[in-house]
Amino acid sequence: MASSDPDKLITKADKLTKLSMTRWSADWRGATSLYEQAALGFRLAKKYEKAKVAFEKASKGQEMLSSPWDAAKHMESAAALAKELGNWREVADFYRQASMLYSECGRAQPASDALAKGARALEEAAPDEAVTLYTEACDTLEEDGKEQMAFDLYRAATSVYIKLEKYLDAATFLIRWGVSADKCNATHSQCKAYLSAIIVYLYANDFDQAQKCYNDCSQIDAFLSSDQSRCAAKLLSAYTDGDVEEIKRVAQSSTISNLDHAIIRLARKLPTGDVSGLKSETGKEQEEPLDEDDLT
Asked: Where do the record's region annotations for Disordered lie (predicted)?
């Protein structure tokens, strides 16, 4: 039937949105319905490029009809088709637009979910953009006071940073996770995040930063009295003693085995550098007591 031809539906819809001598106002309601029918028809026929464009137009139509929720849904459909086509730039752009439309509805969770879908779609093809989207998804939930809903996003972003070998960024994100967990009284998650950050610093061969992180986190009573804190203390002590076997033993502990897989894999490879120097430096500090008469 001619009216079911998606190309003809698009042509008819486009005419309804254009003003002319005989059409003084656009018929967005009629056009949007036609765009939606065309989009479904193209998708069924696996004409993904045309389906993507039709969903974009349907989204614009729903915006013109003051229906941001439906507009967001169509934009997500366009994003999914952009993924099928390997148009990674469009994947990010469309999911961001969908997120903004959900935000117009006052819905933080779907807005964050849209960004997370984009991030997952881009993890392999554009990992740097993926972590940016994960970060924006976390921002959206944090701004709405829904930190606990973001835990999987913190985990996913950390994993991508580790794959990119951006260990300092991974540790920073883990500390951010710990802070958010504190806000929603998720003490166990908070302590695991802090121990994970310390492990990442050690894997990056940055003992000083690991020690500083431990000292800072120890100001928090919940962490100080936790199994994760005791595990971190043993690990740092083994580093200070230059005891490779003890480092490996602590890395096999049940406390570390209960962390996320990406962190466990790093812990099992510790130490990543020569730790004998730490022992000699510590010994030197102990051998050279402060001379109170020396003011230099």
From this structure: 274-296
